[in-house]
Amino acid sequence: MSMLAPLRLLREPWNASKGNQSNATAGAGSAWCQGLNIPNELFLALGLVSLVENLLVVAAVLRNRNLHLPMYYFICCLAISDMLVSISNLAETLFVLLMERGVLVIRASVVHHMDNVIDMLICSSVLSSLSFLGVIAVDRYITIFYALRYHSIMTLQRAMVTMATVWLASTVSSTVFITYCRNNAILLCLISFFLFVLVLMLVLYIHMFALARHHLRSISSQQKQPTLHCSSSLKGAVTLTILLGVFFVCWGPFFFHLILIVTCPTNPFCTCFFSYFNLFLVLIICNSVVDPFIYAFQSQELRRTLREVVLCSW
C-alpha cells in the first residue's frame, strides 16, 4: 500500500545513512523480515466497517436526549475520531486503487496537496482518538470515586471545553508533526504522549477495579455469598483485561516502531520490525472497529437507541 508523506517517512528511518540502511537490510534478509503484503481491499473493508459502526454511535447519541451527558459526548467524540481514521484510510486506499489502475490521473502537485490534507486528517484523528480514550478513563474514574460530586465536577460546560481543547490540540499537533516529521524530538513527543495515556489508563482502571472488588467483597461477606464475589471479580478482571489488552495490542506495535526509529535505525532486528509497518496500521484501524463494542455498545440505553436508528433507516 502506498503511504502518504509522514507515514511513508515513518515506515523506515531517515536518521541513518543509505549505506547503513542497505547493510542492515542485507543483514536482515531472512524470510520473516520481508514483512506482510496486505491488500488494499483489506484496508478498504476495515475502513468501511469502522465508518458504519462509529456513524451509528454518533447517530444514536444525537438522537436520544437521555444520552446528552458528558460521558456519552466523550464516547461520541471518540467515535468521530475513529470515523476520521476510517475516512482518511478510505480516501487514501481509494486514491491508491484508482491511480494504480489508471482510472485516476492527477498531477504531482495536486497529489502532494492531497497528501498533506489526508496526512493532517490521519494525524489529528489518531491523536484525538488517543486523547479521548484518556478522557473517558478520567470521566469514569470521577464517576466512581466522586459519584456524589460528579455533576458539579464534570459539568456540561467543562465537558465542552475539554472536547474543544482536545480537537484544537490534536489539529495543531498534527500540523507540527507534518511540518517537522523528520525531527526525532517530534517522535519522542508522540511516544511520550502514548506512554502517558497508557499509564493513565492502567492506573485509573486498575484503581477502579480494586475499588469494585473491595465493594463486592464487603457485599458478599454481608450476604454470605462468596460465589457472587468470585464471579463478579472474574467478570471485572476479564473486562479490564480486554479493555487494556485491546488498547496495548492495537496501539503498542506502532509506537514501538517509532521507538525503534529513534533508538536503533540500522539494527537488523529493527529493520525487520520496520517491514511490518502496514500491519501496525491495520491494528490501529482494527482499534477503530473494536472501540464501539468496548465503550458504546455496553450501554443498554445506547443499544436501544441504536436499534431504533437502524429500524428507522429501513
TrEMBL record:
Record SMART domains: 7TM_GPCR_Srsx
Tell me the InterPro entries matching this sequence. GPCR_Rhodpsn, GPCR_Rhodpsn_7TM, Melcrt_ACTH_rcpt, MSH_rcpt
User: Could you give a GO molecular-function term held by this entry?
Assistant: melanocyte-stimulating hormone receptor activity
Q: Which GO terms describe its biological process?
A: regulation of gene expression
Where is the protein found, in the record's own terms? Cell membrane
Where's it mainly located?
membrane
Tell me the Pfam families matching this sequence.
Answer: 7tm_1 (PF00001)
Q: Which residues cross the membrane?
A: 42-62, 71-97, 117-138, 159-179, 185-212, 233-261, 273-297
Instruction: State the Gene3D superfamilies in the record.
Output: Rhodopsin 7-helix transmembrane proteins
Q: Which domain of life is it from?
A: Eukaryota
The alphabetized UniProt keywords are: Cell membrane, G-protein coupled receptor, Glycoprotein, Membrane, Receptor, Transducer, Transmembrane, Transmembrane helix
Q: Which SUPFAM superfamilies match?
A: Family A G protein-coupled receptor-like
Q: Topology with regard to the membrane?
A: Multi-pass membrane protein
Which is one Gene Ontology cellular component term of this protein?
plasma membrane
Every G-protein coupled receptors family 1 profile domain range = 53-295
Q: What does this protein do?
A: Receptor for MSH (alpha, beta and gamma) and ACTH. The activity of this receptor is mediated by G proteins which activate adenylate cyclase.
Stated family: Belongs to the G-protein coupled receptor 1 family.
The protein depicted here goes by the name Melanocyte-stimulating hormone receptor
Q: Which organism is it from?
A: Nipponia nippon
